[in-house]
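Tutorial handout. Part one gives the primary structure; part two gives the three-dimensional structure as tokens.
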Amino acid sequence: MTPAARIQSAIEILDSVIAAANGQGAPADRLLSEWFRTHRFAGSSDKRAIREHVYTAIRACGPVPASGRAAMLRVAEGDAEMRALFDGSPHGAAPIADYETPAVGGLAPRWLEERLAGSDIAGGEAMALLERAPLDLRVNRLKATRDTVELPVQFEPLAAPDAVRVPSGSSVEQWPAYLAGEVEVQDLGSQIACIAVGAAPGEVVIDLCAGAGGKTLALAAQMAGKGTLIAADTDRGRLSRLPPRVGRAGARMIEPVLLNPGNEMAALDVWQGKADRVLVDAPCSGTGTWRRNPEGRWRLSQHELTKLTILQARLLTIAAGLLRPGGTLTYVTCSLLDEEGAGQVQRFLDTHPGWRAQPPVLPLGDPRGPGIRLSPARHGTDGFFIACIVSP
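Part two.
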């Protein structure tokens, strides 16, 4: 493919990404994979270049752009070499007309920028959300340690005891250590959130929003594979991806439990009032994960954010009913908005007399209300809010 044809291909893919963002369709990475599957003439170097163009354009636009072409024009605005590739050549992008307007830049739609600023995420702290994320792994202490694990690349030990950082783009899933269950892909911030849970061998621990089980596996390693660990979720598809990971990691004490949305306690009643610890890794806006999912900021509406905060409050109430007296509820969101983090936990405390916040002792993080906040700019992690609440 010519460089001009790569630009035009990126524009076509961006059109699909924009339509999907407006209609809550497939994420950008899936759309890219599908385009590559149906355009087999694109070689490996073409794919790399097109992917780079697509994600550079997504990061360059604040509000949802009008079109893929407007998004690429935003990138080309300060790049004379790229502008020259809009040359009208066969399979290339049409020349730029005088009347064409590039997409608007910035961090996100205006309302969302204002919400983040109200949570003290502005300036460099905000723009760090659009940087490229590093590639972090968790060494599975059920099978290895940082001192014993053998990886085919140089790695950097991180602040969490089992965390290492490897070169971006590494084919981790093909490594012998990954296939043997010795390492899992997991962001440093996510690992720190698991440390906050403080799970110990022999305890009854419930991961209430387990998804595909990334944090569940980390808790199993904390528990040395001993005790009761419930991985609960309402998403059958995501939960079905957990058993193969459990087998690879050697964490066979994990018990998946599928929940019925709106009637979650029907499947959890047997553990009511018995759990030592409950983790609520709550569904959220994902503002802390834009480095990995930059088009996520185009998918969030004020109405959706309101729905999420209502769901988060409900999950906190469900989790509270599962804990024994003196048990600990760990609330986590990959969001930097206070209404999903510090404000959400404070509302719970205000309406549940006798419950108290117990700030976790963590290797990284800044105090934020009744909890701790991690951010890409300050800690090199995804953005997280983490709070520990103790039952009376």
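Part three, for discussion. The longest helix spans residues 3-23. The mean pLDDT is 96.
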